[in-house]
Specification:
This protein has helices spanning about 5-10, 60-75, 120-125, 130-145, 160-175, 180-210, 250-260, 265-280, 285-310, 315-330, 345-355, 365-375, 395-415, 425-440, 455-465, 475-485, and strands at about 25-30, 35-40, 40-45, 50, 55, 80-90, 95, 105-110, 210-215, 225, 230-235, 245, 335-340, 360-365, 415-420, 445. By secondary structure, it is α+β, with helices and mostly antiparallel strands. It folds into three domains: about 5-110, Phosphorylase Kinase, domain 1; about 120-330, Aminoglycoside 3'-phosphotransferase, Chain: A, domain 2, CATH 3.90.1200.10; about 335-485, P-loop containing nucleotide triphosphate hydrolases (Rossmann fold). The model has no long low-confidence stretch (mean pLDDT about 90).
Length: about 500
């Protein structure tokens, strides 16, 4: 970015200044930092700049934010972020060892293969659903342990949420003079204000319930990397706490919108479903579309700033604005339930249906997961229930299906199509959801995969042996189901 580098950075391009036999040093620049790639390590030095959203103008401030960067990123990437190191002597002859006060500071990190960064993996078509399932595990665990915004904090307040969203549009209106696009931006601003007024009580309730936390803050695909087959987060926002403290739904929306921008709706819908299934925070779906539009507009503004700086192609601006517009008008609602004996393939079939949604606007509720959540158990925990007892007693069955219906109604009301993965062996249970679909103006379908008795037995035994699924079905459960199943009637088919 800078045609003439400062003496310190020029000197640090010399491989001889590094230990461990470094033979080549590569420089990567952003508008706020220099990153020196040397051997197995990377050294990130903050530029002495002061901008509207950050202040690195003094050595003391740069040291402070280096230490914050280390502390914050070690929450989820301790093996990548190693230390804050001082640079000694003079800018013309810098040394990594010395005495006295350093002349500069750097964050020392382990390097990784740039090709393993998730935006590159996605561009090559190599990002898979199991990567995103693992990412969901990481995200939910991180958010559960992240610091919670104190009571009365400005974080998560109405002004903290609405003003940045409106500022994005204001900045874009200034940066993009084209009349047609300005009209579209004005419509997005009006929608944002209207949606915020409707959602403000829920947003306040979520803040009070502890869903506003110290998050990553910049969680798009370029800030995640595949290391040994698992997705690793890195490079969170350290320089501005207002950009880091947020409702966890806003952070999830950032990854969701980035996958959509990479033309991967199947992966976007899969990640969203996996995160909500693990956290149980289905109320987040009510605010997620608002945050997704906000995140799309952030990316549009970044694209506009970049275009203005380098006089480049402005098509990326329109891409993100169009994406925000699609989110404003979700597709026709659909409520799909599954039907069939344990092992017939309901979850496999619903996996495929979930990934096939071109709008990434479908969420799934799994009875095996929600049943355990209702009774205070983890999704992989064994309840020890027998046939018709414990979690599978008649009253537990009624409670589980009532909960599924309540959650489905809430999601449909929020504009999400719903897929309910449950046995639905009883006609009365299916009818209740058919009525719900009619009440909500949603199309209603039954997904009923078939399998032979031998296939059912083999699948149940294999699943039990693996011990990784939420289902607790056994051969005894299957035998009981075969006696009690009420098949789909001609009118249902």
């Amino acid at each position: 970015m800078e045609p003439i580098l400062p003496p310190l950075i020029q000197a640090l391009l010399d491989p001889a200044r590094y230990p461990d036999g470094v033979v080549w040093v590569e420089l990567v620049q952003t508008h706020i930092s220099w990153v020196l790639l040397a051997g197995d390590f990377a050294y990130k030095i903050k530029k002495p700049v002061k901008l509207a959203f950050l202040d690195f103008s003094t050595l003391a401030l740069r040291q402070h934010y280096c230490q914050d960067e280390l502390r914050l990123n070690r929450r989820f990437a301790p093996e990548l972020y190693l230390a804050v190191v001082g640079i000694f002597n003079t800018p013309q002859d810098p040394q990594w060892q010395g005495s006295g006060v350093p002349i500069e500071y750097a964050v020392k990190m382990h390097r990784f293969e740039e090709s393993a960064r998730l935006d590159h993996v996605c561009a090559r078509g190599e990002l898979q659903v199991w990567h995103l399932s693992a990412l969901a595990d990481t995200l939910v665990a991180f958010h559960q342990t992240a610091a919670v915004a104190p009571a009365g904090s400005r974080f998560g307040s109405g002004e903290h949420i609405l003003q940045p969203a409106l500022d994005n549009v204001t900045d874009l209106l200034r940066l993009v003079p084209e009349a047609g696009l300005q009209a579209r931006l004005t419509a997005l601003r009006d929608w944002t204000q209207t949606q915020f007024q409707q959602l403000a009580p829920l947003m306040q309730a979520r803040q009070q319930a502890g869903w506003v936390r110290e998050c990553h803050g910049d969680l798009h695909l370029a800030n995640m990397v595949l290391i040994q087959g698992r997705v690793q987060l890195f490079d969170c926002i350290e320089f501005n706490e207002d950009l880091r403290w947020m409702d966890v739904a806003s952070e999830i929306a950032f990854v969701y919108i980035d996958l959509l921008a990479h033309q991967q709706p199947g992966l976007a819908g899969w990640l969203l479903d996996e995160v909500l299934s693990r956290s149980g925070d289905y109320q987040a779906a009510r605010v997620l579309r608002f945050y997704a539009v906000y995140r799309a507009m952030v990316r549009a503004k970044v694209a506009a700033l970049r275009s203005a700086q380098i006089q480049g192609d402005a098509s990326e601006i329109d891409t993100y604005v169009a994406l925000a517009e699609r989110l404003l008008a979700p597709p026709v609602l659909r409520l799909v339930i599954t039907h069939g004996l344990s092992g017939c393939g309901k979850t496999v079939a619903s996996d495929a249906l979930l990934q096939a949604d071109p709008d990434a606007a479908t969420l799934r509720l799994r009875s095996d997961v929600e049943r355990k959540r209702l009774f205070g158990l983890a999704r992989s925990a064994a309840s020890g229930s027998g046939v018709g007892t414990g979690l599978y007693a008649a009253d537990a069955h009624e409670r589980t299906y009532a909960h599924l219906r309540e959650q489905a109604a809430m999601l449909l009301q929020a504009g999400w199509s719903v897929l309910v993965d449950a046995a639905f062996l009883k006609r009365a249970d299916r009818d209740a959801f058919c009525v719900l679909a009619q009440q909500m103006g949603a199309a209603f379908n039954i997904l009923a995969p078939q399998a032979t008795p031998e296939q059912l037995r083999q699948r149940i035994m294999a699943r039990s042996a693996a011990g990784k699924d939420a289902s607790e079905a056994t051969l005894a459960v299957l035998a009981q189901q075969m006696l009690t199943i009420e098949p789909v009637g001609p009118d249902e088919a």
